[in-house]
């Protein structure tokens, strides 16, 4: 007796998805440091927010620590892609440590903007999520109290800078494009003289991945976003899918996390991945779907990405 045929499933693959240039650069920095200096190489915080990536680097000899004090002075230390407060490299120099800064260049751009606004006498408003490593790093570019954090449009209505005529704003790079636009609109209405970036701070990769989900989600019965629960840009993709009309949008770290029973009856499944999630995890999910369905793949691509960032001169 032959087995019953598997039900059909169309998988819509969002493009772009997965690794961005900043994540790719950060991982390369750790790998090149291991090649050049040997193991162990210390990494302050998760290099990027993805357990699969962190575990793979750990297996090669990377040691992940929370603070600089946890690192010996005679081994290289890498700062994560999210960026660090100014006090961290300063402390590394005092201890005469060899450090490699894997901060995404687009985050570094925000750091430069914040520092410039502060030196120009502006009080800086940072639009971002409290306690996220990128926010901690950006707020650490200026003295305590010189930057105000705003997370929502409601908070933007309430924030009180010392001098409303001397205000500037910067943003976390991994926010919801739509939410951030609403917050900026409130700030511009309340503070007409506010200074902002010449080019928006939300990075190209965050923007592109959200646009792809907006294009893909409306026709899907469910959407899987592959990414880590502490990944800001991945969580934003789930929110974008919901707002785009797909009620069944969930974040999963990998195929083993998928509740296939909850997806019972679907005919079209959207898949994307956050900027820290490698393509191998997408392939793993597709293979898991093929064990349960007769799968047809369909690409939903909104743009092609060709961005690449140079490695530090120490490793180039």
Work out the strand percent: 15-25%
Name of the CATH first level of the largest domain: Alpha Beta
Count the domains. Answer: 3
Based on the structure given, which CATH architecture of the largest domain is correct? 3-Layer(aba) Sandwich
Based on helices, strands and strand pairing, what is the structural class?
alpha/beta
The order of strands across the largest sheet is 10-9-11-1-12
Structure description:
By secondary structure, the protein is α/β, with parallel strands linked by helices. Helix content is 36%, strand content 19%. The protein is built from 10 helices and 12 strands. It has helices at residues 21-37, 51-60, 87-94, 105-119, 133-139, 153-158, 177-190, 204-216, 232-243, 279-290, and strands at 8-15, 41-44, 62-65, 77-79, 99-101, 123-127, 147-150, 167-171, 222-226, 249-252, 268-273, 294-301. Strands 10-9-11-1-12 form a 5-stranded parallel sheet, with helices on both faces. The chain has a 4-stranded parallel sheet with strand order 3-2-4-5. Strands 7-6-8 form a 3-stranded parallel sheet, sandwiched between helices. Strand 2, helix 2 and strand 3 form a beta-alpha-beta unit. Helix 4 packs parallel to helix 5 and helix 8 (204-216) packs parallel to helix 9. The longest helix is centred in the N-terminal third of the chain and has 17 residues, at 21-37.
């Amino acid at each position: 007796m032959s087995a019953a045929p598997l039900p059909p499933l169309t998988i819509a693959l969002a493009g772009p998805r997965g690794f961005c240039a900043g994540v790719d650069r950060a991982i390369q920095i750790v790998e090149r440091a291991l090649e050049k200096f040997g193991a162990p190489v210390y990494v302050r915080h998760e290099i990027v927010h993805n357990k699969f990536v962190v575990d793979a680097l750990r297996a090669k000899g990377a040691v992940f620590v929370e603070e600089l004090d946890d690192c010996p002075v005679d081994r290289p230390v890498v700062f994560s892609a999210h960026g660090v407060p100014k006090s961290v490299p300063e402390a590394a120099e005092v201890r005469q440590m060899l450090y490699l800064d894997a901060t995404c260049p687009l985050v570094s751009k925000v750091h430069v903007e914040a520092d410039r606004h502060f030196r120009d006498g502006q009080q800086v408003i940072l639009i971002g999520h409290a306690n996220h490593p990128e926010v901690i790093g950006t707020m650490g570019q200026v003295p305590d109290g010189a930057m105000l954090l705003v997370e929502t449009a409601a908070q933007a209505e309430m924030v009180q800078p010392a001098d409303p005529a001397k205000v500037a704003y910067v943003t976390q790079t991994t926010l919801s494009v739509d939410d951030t636009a609403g917050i900026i609109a409130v700030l511009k209405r309340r503070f007409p003289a506010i200074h902002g970036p010449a080019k928006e701070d939300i990075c190209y990769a965050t923007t592109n991945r959200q646009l792809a989900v907006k294009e893909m989600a409306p026709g899907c019965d469910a959407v899987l976003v592959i990414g880590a629960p502490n990944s800001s840009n991945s969580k934003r993709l789930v929110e974008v899918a919901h707002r785009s009309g797909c009620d069944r949008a969930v974040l999963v770290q990998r195929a083993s996390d998928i509740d296939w029973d909850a997806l019972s009856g679907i005919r079209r499944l959207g898949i994307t991945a956050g900027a820290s999630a490698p393509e191998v995890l997408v392939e793993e999910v597709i293979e898991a779907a093929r064990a349960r369905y007769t799968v047809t793949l369909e690409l939903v691509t909104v743009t092609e990405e060709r961005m690449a960032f140079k490695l530090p001169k120490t490793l180039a």
